[in-house]
Amino acid sequence: MRLADFLEREMETVLTEWDRFAVSAAPPGPRMDAKALRDHAPHILRAIVLDLRTAQSAGQQDRKAKGRAPVLANAPHTAAQTHALLRAQSGFNIVQMAGEYRALRASVLWLWGEEALPQSDTAWADALEDMTRFNEAIDQALVESVDFFNREVERARDLFLGVLGHDLRDPLATIRTTANLLGKLRADPVVSQAAARLMRSGARMQEMLDDLLDYNRSTLGVGLSIAVEDTDLGKLCAAQIDDFRSDHTDRVIELETHGNLQGLWDSGRMQQLLSNLLANAIAHGAPDSPVGVRLEGTPSEVILTVHNRGPAIAPAELPYLFDPLQRGARSEGSATTNTHLGLGLFIAREVARAHGGEIEVSSDERETLFSVHLPRAS
Fold first, then answer.
1. DSSP code for 310
2. What is the tally of helices (H) and strands (E) in the chain?
3. Distance separating alpha carbons of residues 58 and 119, to the nearest angstrom
4. What is the pLDDT averaged over residues 88-110?
5. Distance between CA atoms of residues 304 and 231, nearest Å
6. Residue 42 CA to chain centroid, in angstroms?
7. Residue 358: what are its φ and ψ, rounded to 5°?
8. Tens digits of residue pLDDT in 140-163
9. Bridge partners for 264 per DSSP
């Protein structure tokens, strides 16, 4: 018996095996009913039956083997994609979902083998073709499910980060306001010092929340919002560096400027970009060496560079340096290890791109250098 005929005849038997495994793999919590556990399994099997009965060329077989089979134009989602969406929303993890396909593959081939062992060379050839086609169809469904499952998890993560960042703003604002009020009460030195620490920590938390919300906007495709105005980048950077010097009295930060530094930029975003680059240079640079900032105006753009001495970044790490949510351990021997969310360099790159510019990085035994090219009119 050909596999497609067997699947149509024994559909309910196969689905019962699917249900049994889904029950064993279901996450802890309220028990799912039979309909929820089975969800789109019948549609997946019917799609496999249709595939087994459809002629395919060698090229189509090769694309399917690589998980690149075409999706029907009139179907917004395949059954496998919908199955992944429902499993993600029900709390399954990706290993449990992939296990369902493994169990489905094993149960179908076992039941079919018990039912119809080939009796001739022709039957053996047909059986081999059916098994090959069936495995290709299962692999294609698995690729679709895994891809859609990952997208749903990423969407849920981005939504969570956005809600978290937004909801933390109000309590943080209350803490900062209270700390500021305590600092103005002219209380004893202990209270004043504690209030100052609270204000500094609150400001840092606000920066982290702003980075988190900017990351969220970027990953959702909204992009960073900018409001450009006539800005003197030299004065802006000098003021930002003065703030850093007061917060890092043990570090030397040098500023060098050349040429016309006037242009149309979002001054708040420019402060954010420089702040993130300076924070990175101070965190990873040699403590006994200065951090250098240089601004050079050309007819069409201003080039901002931030450099520090210290251990070189491994060449293999450079392509991933701007990836968000990376803990980014640096090369062996680095003075510090980045233990925060790792959004600073990602946000810096997004700010540069929002202004029509770009950021580059190079690193060797002498220094690590970040270069930002900013067109005068973004």
1. S
2. 12, 7
3. 28
4. 79
5. 14
6. 33
7. -155, 160
8. 788 778 887 877 777 777 766 666
9. 230, 377
